[in-house]
Amino acid sequence: MNLIKKSAAKAPKPAAEPPVHEQVYQKLRGQILFGEMAPGQAVTIQGLTDSLGAGMTPVREAIRRLISDGALVFQGNRRVSVPVLSAADVEQLIFVRQALESELTRRAARHVTPGLIAELEAIDSALDSAIAAGDVSGYLQQNYNFHTALYARAQAPVMLDLSDRMWLRFGPSLRVVCGRFGTQNLPDRHKELLDALRIGDIEAAAGAMAEDVVQGMQMVDAVLEERSVQV
Amino acid sequence: MNLIKKSAAKAPKPAAEPPVHEQVYQKLRGQILFGEMAPGQAVTIQGLTDSLGAGMTPVREAIRRLISDGALVFQGNRRVSVPVLSAADVEQLIFVRQALESELTRRAARHVTPGLIAELEAIDSALDSAIAAGDVSGYLQQNYNFHTALYARAQAPVMLDLSDRMWLRFGPSLRVVCGRFGTQNLPDRHKELLDALRIGDIEAAAGAMAEDVVQGMQMVDAVLEERSVQV
DNA sequence: CAGCAAAAAATTTGATCATATTCTGTCCCT
DNA sequence: AGGGACAGAATATGATCAAATTTTTTGCTG
Lengths: 231, 231
Prior knowledge:
By secondary structure, chain A is mainly α.
């Protein structure tokens, strides 16, 4: 229909840019997910207007969205910061992620294609490279990509949205885990998951994902315990 | 500490008011949850600045939060509207709500007190009154209160947040259900739930809630089907 | 001559910014 | 140590610019 714009001779923008508040949101989201922000770190509007070169209205909107996502917390007075997880939070994250992500895996496994398996293999090998290189940010990003690429096949936008929300909550803490244990010692169940997908064993795939989730969250819990004792 | 403000002779505000964007958010949230907005209805910023008497910045922030909540949808162009649920959405809502709310019930049931039971009984009787009076908005509100009062005892803020999010999604559609079937024909499992709580049968309580959830969502699905056939 | 269609203007709405006001936290002075 | 002033940051408003929808006008065809 009218998906193709007029695109007259004037146009220097063949691809209409997303609005600034969306760009700011995506940028902050990436920083939170991939470990560029530490738990407890304060977030100020003016700091972001400077570092991102945007006005304050778009920054305000992005921060509101992230607060609603649980990716940032509003601290009663007018301060905003990156959340520090409590033991109770982690316990709930384990329950929800296990229920949600094993079901997403189950649904994605029903629509599995050779293309998907190849895509996941590529991501997993990129992930291994990042581990070998000690690239924490790259590791976090590829790990997220692995899960996201799989879940995208589940045809379940509502559940996908909830899952993303959970990732935003523990993203910053995952960075701390890497800093503490190193990327070398972060086991996952991606290989088992891929094996299960290849032979079409849906329940095995869901089980592998559940184990992957629990394992990851237990690492977070361990670091958390260490911190709370230290403090 | 300094909870008591100076409160000099001037002060007409003994209780510090919440910021405007918060007030706007709560107001819109109530309108969406309790059926004052129809699925598909368009939401404009300028319309809200007029009807709520607020500036556009607070309204914008409230809308962003609600979009992040899934209570409103951004329609690609710059339009925002109340979401219309698809059959796939309802199916996912059933799965998620069943898993989440039965677990919340389980956790709340472990900390059950006579005070909680009395509170729930009071809400349920107010709910019955609203049904008898044909007060749709009151019915929706009391129904929400019933679930919320119970879940508040679960000591699970993360899961509570997700649950609230789900309610925001189907709130407008629930209103349509009432309009179609009337409040008289909306069965719930509150009585069974209260019985289970009284005798301390945690699993029975969780089961009753799961049935309550499925029943409610099936009503939404039925109306949805009717609509899609009609169109 | 009437009706449809396409194009252009006008209105409505959203996005962004700059500015003023209010509040919180801190530091200094008594 | 307690109270008050100062500084920094957040909230909120209004104005301005850009985009999209709607309406109007114009031209063409049956």
